[in-house]
Amino acid sequence: MVAGSCNVELMFLKRHLRKKDGKKHTYYSLVETIRTSGGPRHRRVAYLGEMNSSSEMEWKKVVKVFNRDGTFRQLSLFASDCGEVPEGESIAFVDVSRVRWERPRNFGDVFVATHLWKILKLDEFFEQSFRDTERDVSWDKMVLISVTARLLSPGSELSVEQFFYPQSALDDLTGIAVGKVNTDRLYRLLDHVLPCKLDLEGHLKGKVGELFNERFDLVLYDLTSTYFEGVYDGNDTLLHGYSRDHRPDCKQLVIGLVVTKKGLPFGYKIFPGNQSDVKSLTEIIVQMESSYGKADRIWVIDRGIVSEENLKLLSEHKALYLVGTPRSMLKRYEQQLVDQRDWEEVQEGIQVKMISTPDSSKETFILCKSESRLKKEEAIHLRFERKIEESLERLKNEKSERKLFERLGRIKTQCSRVARCYRIKVISTKSGPKLSWIRDEASLQYAKASQGAYILRTNLVANDPKDLWSMYMQLNDAEAAFRNLKSDLKIRPVYHQKQDRIEAHILITFLAYVLWKTLDELAKQKNVGLTARMILKTLHGIKSGDILLPLTDGKTLRLRRVSIPDKKQQEILQKLGIQLPERLAPDTYDMAVSEMKM
What we know:
By secondary structure, this protein is of the alpha+beta class. Helix content is 41%, strand content 23%. A hairpin with a 6-residue loop joins strand 15 (422-427) and strand 16 (434-439). The chain is elongated, with a radius of gyration of 34 Å.
């Protein structure tokens, strides 16, 4: 039913029958009749989705009340197979030249986030957690909004209020109006969500285990830091310390993250900013055992966190471990490094071999060599060799003994990687100091032999060195987690002042990372062939909005619909098993201006 600028063409509901899951379904589209050289043809104007008989009557009722003068008129939309329009029926006409798209919202990536939220049963968890909380806006929905914002468009609470939420379809999906999501509620949410942390970690462990058949028999542990902009006087946990963010001028917190062998996070702990890596392990072990029991799990830990005290601690807790070792330990096994026998290739460019030790019954050592690491360290070594020799050459003419020793100290500090390979002498003479040096060939030989090498240490027995190396390499998943937290989810810098809100901010970011990794793992299981980042970026193109059909009597039909995914988007959704809704709100109509004045 259409009123064009020249001719009036009929626009009507067209019925489509489709068999799905053994049942017949009826779908409708709004089409117009056009004249072509081949005869009359139908052109689709809008896809309306499935409607039952009551939905079809609602459409008829909408049109039925479109009366300019207030008197009753029967206005109906007819399907294409209903035959001729019965006599006495009034037909509503739509001005196609004024049909438009309004209120565009980001929908595809937002809907995926809510889908992940539901399959992890986080909707049920937070609904139960906040069941006794009085509020006019449900806190469980506010957690979803805050975590989704951190996942898709990380920023401040103000940016969520002013930009993210108004531009997303979350108001349709949660039922919370745009004006109700503001900075005040987002800040108060942080106060409510933090007490849920321990129960939440237990919930996630259970759901992640169910979804991905994760046994939690191997855990990866690593540390990172996040820095703060501002003074933060009076906060005893925000301290200056070793900054992995290269911001030693800022106070920081240290975060210890525990992930599964697939890189799925299920626990973390916050430490003071000056916490040493080595000392953090005690507290995280106690937390894991109190939360999940003293199960036989293998701890995979980077060498920066390893100390003899920590290994003793793990043994006391009857825990199994696989750890990296300090580089200095390579010196003990110089002969094994040089010996070309018994090396086993685990993959191209990587070789390993077991090392015999006096107490092999308690621990096993695995010597590893990496060709790519060898080339990198070899290039670094040559660069520092040139630098120290050029610097020493320039020092030969220095007449002041004091200045000579000062500059010599700086050179050794700057070239510490190769300084031990040179024997440097300074002889005092009447005419001034004489500087000489020679290469220490034994040290050079060891340096070359140790390039690209590292040692793993474990109390696991009767394990293949290939399996142990592969297990240790999974520690990269924990490191990847920190890269995601810092780059994609932007956990840093932090601007909150209160300690509880700082910790709640980290919890929200942790939850966003849980969604991220869940999507990543689902994509691997379903053979999507894309990372979580690429999936969200691709589905971001799916929008929701309102189709406005202006009627010739001054009223307008408003249909809130989701855009049809393109081929790539549809393929992703199909593999992930995600079905987009066809409509987001009941179809309505806008009254004519003249009627509104009446």
